[in-house]
Amino acid sequence: MADYHKVLRKDYGVLDFTFDWAPNRNGDTTKTDWLATGETLTLHVVTVESGLIKVSDGLVLSNSGVSVWVNAKSSDLGTYLITCSIATSNNREDARTLEVEVI
Fold first, then answer.
1. Which of 9, 20, 27, 100 could connect to 65 by a Cys-Cys bridge, CB 3.0–4.6 Å?
2. What percentage of the chain's residues is helix, strand, coil (to nearest 5)?
3. What's the confidence (pLDDT) of residue 73?
4. How many Cβ atoms from other residues are within 10 Å of residue 19's Cβ?
5. Closest CA to 19 of 89, 74, 70, 53
6. Contacts of 29 (CB under 8 A, 6+ apart)
7. How far apart are the C-alpha atoms of 38 and 17, rounded to whole Å?
């Protein structure tokens, strides 16, 4: 099951999605941080299913999140998964999945 669900129109071009392991620290006070104080992401791997094209990805939010830029393939409508696996400065690992519906 996906952690998040987003909709991407195939004619929108390239869109970005962000996985945030410290949303409270980054301004969303309605959520709690997974990262401990001072802990940062040190490694990330982003995989996308074949109906999407990964344009780029990188660390953001002072190394507490990962942004990925994706585009839908021109004829592939449907639902696809983007998974982001990380390792941290405290030697912890986690993975989160975003479900993207291409319409």
1. 20
2. 0, 55, 45
3. 76
4. 27
5. 70
6. none
7. 24
49: left (phi over 0), alpha (psi -120 to 50) or beta: beta
Query: What DSSP string describes 37-69?
Result: TT--EEEEEEEE-TTEEEEEEEEETTTTEEEEE
Phi, psi of 47 (to 5 degrees): -120, 145
Q: Using a cut of 0.85, tell me whether the model's pTM lies above it.
A: yes
Query: Which domains are assigned to the chain?
Result: 4-102 (2.60.40)
Residue 4 has pLDDT above 70, yes or no: no
Over residues 57-87, the pLDDT tens digits come to 999 999 999 999 998 876 778 889 999 999 9
